[in-house]
Amino acid sequence: MTIATLDPVLDRLARFTHAPMPVVSLYLDLSGNAQGRQTHEAFLDEAFAEPSATYASDSTFRDALARDAARIRQYLASELDASAARSLALFTCNGGEELFEAIPLDLPLEGHLLYVDDEPHLFPLARAAEQYATYAALVVNTNAARLFVCATGAVQHSETIENVKTKSVAAGGWSQARYQRHVEDLHLKHMKEVAEAVERTVRVEGVRAIILSGEAQAITLLRKQLHDTVDALVIDVMRLDVTAREHDILAATLAAFRRNDEETDREVVEALLDAYRSRGLATVGPTGVRAALDRGQVDTLVVPAAPGTLATDHASATLPATPSGDASRRLDEALVEALVTEARRTGAGVRFIEDAALLEHASGVGAFLRYRV
Predict the structure, then answer these.
(1) Domains in the chain, please, with CATH?
(2) Residue, of 166 and 51, whose pLDDT is higher
(3) Sheet of strand 99-105, all strands in order from the earlier edge strand to the far edge
(4) Rounded to an integer, what distance in angstroms lies between the CA atom of residue 311 and that of residue 314?
(5) Residue 131: helix, strand or coil by DSSP?
């Protein structure tokens, strides 16, 4: 599933609130353990037991949860193509407004997660949508270009643009000069075609960033043909040959995309704090951010990324009111989860900050605002 497809799914799930029966949010890592064996079956047995035990044996809630578990197992056994997915996000609810949304993803998850609550838990999916957002990777020389649209950690589709091949000649004088101008004209025509393909891809695919690679001469010529707004999306220029394997291009450009995302985190947080200190369009801290979300005032929510240590835990809505230790960290995640879900409901963007320490002076969370009140 592409990010373009994932965004409306996130919005639809965010609107599924206060269900009369339990809502199950399940995240599974399908990559297997070190021996290549799947571990999600054993996880499901244990993870469903805890929330199920909180309901009476004759409870309709317990029955609904049992039907959810059975439906999930049916999907895993007969409907999921595990060879085409590295992970799975699945949301289900039996009763009242029914829900069953299975989302196979070609991106990694660190372990398994199960939540049982009165609404879907979207934090891991929303974070993946940012980390593996749509970008374009272009490998180019003066004779050929390969353009890749990448999202959810995979190449979604690609195209090749080829120039008219030229041969060197041994003629001198005016003949050589005319031939050289002919070659230059062909190169320019090629770069214009490549630029048009890149700009079309940005427009149609909602590309967030562009990574260029190839011959320095070709890249310089290409960037002169790109519209300024498209050239501004270029975040890195790399050295990859136009004949490189698709897998190698994906690995190198995805690493560059993630690296750029982390490097710009500090700039985002500094801009947030500057705007807040100057009484601009920003607020910080859970109380202020929650109030701004309630008013539909938030343009972009800025939150810490989830701790990776929680990826093998399972959680439910029955956590104690005054937790300690690991349970306290779960409530921290639950707070961010609620803010992210409300941001999706109100059309706000979400920016995840990989280094949570950057948000220390923002009391852990902040938001850029659309307007003042």
Answers:
(1) 1-130 (3.30.960.10), 135-261 (3.30.420.60), 279-373 (3.30.1330.30)
(2) 51
(3) 99-105, 87-93, 23-29, 113-117
(4) 8
(5) helix
